[in-house]
Design goal:
Largest sheet of chain A: 5 strands, mixed
Order of helices and strands of chain A: EEEHEEEHHHHH
Strand order of the largest sheet of chain A: 3-2-6-4-5
Radius of gyration of chain B: 27 Å
Strand content of chain A: 15-25%
Oligomer: heterodimer
Bound molecules: FE2/S2 (inorganic) cluster
Shape of chain A: globular
Protein name (chain A): 2Fe-2S iron-sulfur cluster-binding protein
CATH class of the largest domain in chain A: Mainly Alpha
Keywords (chain A): Iron, Metal-binding, Oxidoreductase
Low-confidence stretches of chain A: 178-194
CATH superfamily of the largest domain in chain B: Aldehyde oxidase/xanthine dehydrogenase, molybdopterin binding domain
Low-confidence stretches of chain B: none
Protein name (chain B): Xanthine dehydrogenase family protein molybdopterin-binding subunit
CATH topology of the largest domain in chain B: Aldehyde Oxidoreductase, domain 4
Pfam families (chain A): Fer2, Fer2_2
Organism (chain B): Hymenobacter aranciens
Mean pLDDT of chain B: 95
Structural class of chain A: alpha+beta
Number of domains of chain B: 3
CATH topology of the largest domain in chain A: DNA polymerase, domain 1
Helix content of chain B: 10-25%
Largest sheet of chain B: 7 strands, mixed
Number of helices of chain A: 6
Radius of gyration of chain A: 20 Å
Number of strands of chain A: 6
Shape of chain B: globular
Structural class of chain B: alpha+beta
Strand content of chain B: 15-25%
CATH architecture of the largest domain in chain B: 2-Layer Sandwich
Number of helices of chain B: 16
Helix content of chain A: 25-40%
Largest interface: A-B, 82 and 97 residues
Mean pLDDT of chain A: 89
CATH superfamily of the largest domain in chain A: [2Fe-2S]-binding domain
CATH class of the largest domain in chain B: Alpha Beta
Amino acid sequence: MSTVIQKPLDHQPPSLPPTQSVRLTINSQESHFTVAPWTTLLDALREHLDLTGTKKGCDHGQCGACTVLIDGKRINSCLTLAVMRDGADITTIEGLGTPENLSPLQQAFIDHDAFQCGYCTPGQICSAQGLLNEGKAKTEAEVRELMSGNLCRCGAYPNILSAIMEVMDKDGLIMDTKEWSAGGAKPEMDPINS
Amino acid sequence: MMTTDYIGKPTNRVDGPAKVAGTAKYAAEFNVPNLLYGYVVSSPIAKGKITKINAEEVLALPGVHKVFSHENVPSLAWFDRSYKDDVAPGGSPFRPLHSAEVKYSQQPVALVVADTFELARYAASVLEIEYEQTAHETDLSKHIDDAREPGGGKTGYKPPKSRGNFGRGWEQGVAKVEANFQHGAQHHNPMENFATTVEWLGDKSLNVYDKTQGAFNSQQYIMKVFGLSKDQARVISKYTGGGFGSGLRPQYQLFLAVLASLELERSVRVSLTRQQMFSFGHRPHTLQHVALATNADGSLSGINHFAVAETSQFEDFTENVVGWSGMIYDCKNVKLGYRLSKLDVYTPLDMRAPGAASGSIALEIAMDEMAEAAGLDPVEFRLRNYADYDQEQNLPFSSKKLRDCYHEGATKFGWANRNPAPRSMRQGNRLIGWGMAGGIWDSATQPAQAKASLDADGHLRVQSGSNDIGTGTYTIMTQIAAETLGLPIEAVTFELGDTLMPEAPVQGGSWTASSVGTAVRKACQALGEKLLKQAQKMDESAFADATIDDVQFVNGQLRLRTDPDQAVVLRDLVQASGEPRLEAENSKLPGMLGMLKPAQYSMHAHNAVFVEVQVDEELGTIHVTRVVNAVAAGRILNPKTARSQVLGSVVWGISMALMEESVMDHRFGRYMNHNYAEYHIPVNADIHDIDVIFVHEEDDKVNELGVKGIGEVGLLGVAAAISNAVYHATGKRVRDMPVMIDKLL
Ligand code: FES
Ligand code: FES
């Protein structure tokens, strides 16, 4: 028998830091609010601003469910503090489209059945939007690779891929899918006997 | 009569717009006013007792309301039965914060409630707790000999049945294989963490937004434990961010949130962290042994399948691991065994295709070994041992198109070109292997209730308190209702996930499509009869002598079959009734009676999976480059959502075969990789071509709709087929899942 004590790492008596005010432009609307400095952007959105379209799957930057766009670039909102983003321009899933007025990506996700439970979906769509903005991915293999920061436990990956490819195709962004844009041939899927 | 306007069509998900726009609200997203936040403190020890909780410093923080622990929880329901939910196995359910005793690592030991999430989290992190630790036992491999046959207790569990004389069959055999298999524990890890938001409405009345696969199961649980009436305990669960079985039983955050709300008379939210998602049910660590023998003609002369699995000290979690091995192939001599060993872990829990997913790994790898030993192609071997009736129950199958699964799957895959010799195909430095396997899953129907109501604008609202964990329930129920009453999809709204609605079973076992689907259809038919009665009240009604069989519902109208020009608009019938709406429910009785009747048929879905892997010869990395999964599951209500279910199952199978394992450090009795970075599941780049085939299968016996359910069957055989393909590629037989690089080198 042994004694185990579960206690704070720093052995300091508990204390609270003062709150700070933050100004963000979210989906083209200005918001001012006051939060504790250790509030993540994700929790600020979900708990303080009632923008619950952005999801929390891990809170540790491991799943991508919390992906939002800051100045058009995709970011895991659980890995940044709200106070660090003072003055930033943020787009969340709610800013990409509404049920009545869906963005092309949102519509493609529905048409391709690119989700099941829907919990990873806002993050997938924001991430896909970020991918389009980056303009780097040109082939299926690259889209798969560059969408691999967004987990989907329901396993909707093939349909997520086809939804994104459809939008890229319409925008004329796809190279010959037999090619990797980095050069060289796409590995053949059919086996060759030695 | 049913027209086929919607059923069987690849309809887009009706809940799609809400999900892609982020307006679908999950349990932790109801931001009710004056909300408090609870944060759970988890035990760092696996066994022992709490000796001291030093809460004073934490309580002194402004904004911290309370630290709940076993020291201050009010006396609640006393008997075990109050804590037993609909899906509880035999034994004595775990009661959160009940006593100082710690029964497993990560057990919830305290709940800190504060004004904000950040504050509750901080306060929980500085709460000092002292424990007295005692030795724990968490290693199944050290406790095989203590394993014993489980008692009953869990609804639906039947101990495996042996038949014939395996010893003689084994003696007779001209070719034999025998091997041990294992896989570690796995956690469901739905993307949405478990959470409950309790809205305090005053006077012990609560709206409980819970993450669950069964709102009624959660409701029953909190009513019994906290002595609440049905009216006081409304449970709402409209969107569930994945379940896979994890939401079948009420989880402890429900208990904690309700406790805090009742005690503090405030609205409270408790969300678990990803780490805490490893602190309750899981697919149990399972060890298996399979021995097979064949006669000279390749027919099986004996099957022996034995499994030992872990369970907790307080409940006997049982699942059907080995029973399928007595059912899927034709064999007279079958010996089956299943035992449990009690360890200091939490009770395991049904996880997608529970039992079958585990059992099929061992049986289907052994079948591959057996085929090779008997000198037969794996498909040919299975065809030679095809079971034409269920030998376990001695019943005919209501339908079984597994043969077609083999044929259609093999053709699509190009299986005929396979060179049976291992290491016979390569491309550059990648070895290529082809493997296959198959599976079987129950088709069950549970009693369910639904209500249909048509308003004066001609809009049909159908309700059943079921759930949609991503399975497509919203969509297929809308299709069934629209088709039954001949209305456009847009004129139909299906609602679920609320205990104010008619009662439905938990969503699991692949039975929702059949159970709730039948209820929805019957409710709509009952409403159809009411509408006909209303039509008959009209002056000089053309329907005066018509029975329900003489009419049809098409394009928003009620028509005479023999004279379609005699039609009346449904909306007008509601208006003529003088009521704001006409309503009807299905009767609960047929489902209940059906459960009591002895079974006349064995009802199952089947599949066959074909897989190609490419294995880097030097690095041992494995890529699953092609999968063809052929499924026979009766009528497919919506090929689009059903295909997604099978795609997801294949991704799960790849995960089981190559990645997933909760790794326990037995020194601490704790799962060490309890996060998404270290508990590996596939990402987009891991997934390549997946082809889903629905084999045509008509079944008028399984239920009125002819559906068998599709949520589980697609997973079966996938992991075994991958291991078989890895063997074909490399010549290495791996029987210990997941197949990782170190096992190939
Ligand atoms: S919640 Fe941010 S990455 Fe998972
Ligand atoms: S749709 Fe459920 S996790 Fe992706």
